[in-house]
Design goal:
The protein contains 6 helices and no strands. The chain has 121 residues and is mainly alpha-helical.
């Protein structure tokens, strides 16, 4: 029981952390970091990485892949969104019922709401 509670707490904490990292990437708050970290700069990767990394594919197909299936590789925003999704899927797998998952989701939403009353940016 204690191990399950620890895993759920770890997944919920990781979910919040990954959502924050994704949000900061969207807001371009990673000054001095490589372009991949800031969405304002890295959004072009969706169009450029296909021809760059998969030059053997037709351009339209490689661009399509990086705009859909591989979009999580193109910037920090999408990468951390994927990791936060994995955290929720782990919680669903561990808890098994939608009611408990809803409780976990509401708890992380409450944490995000309470954050707005702090000076944490």
């Amino acid at each position: 029981m204690l191990q399950t509670a620890f895993l759920i707490a770890l997944c919920a904490f990781s979910f919040v952390m990954f959502r924050e990292l994704s949000e900061h990437s969207t807001e371009n708050k990673y000054k001095g970091f490589p372009d991949w970290w800031n969405t304002k700069i890295s959004h072009v990767n969706k169009d450029n990485w296909g021809p760059k990394f998969l030059p053997f594919l037709p351009k339209k197909i490689s661009i399509f892949l990086f705009r859909t299936v591989l979009v999580w590789t193109t910037d920090a925003e999408h990468f951390f969104q994927l990791l936060s999704l994995f955290c929720i899927l782990a919680i669903v797998f561990i808890l098994g019922t939608w009611q408990l998952v809803l409780v976990a989701y509401l708890a992380q939403t409450l944490a995000g709401f309470l954050k707005s009353f702090t000076n944490i940016s």
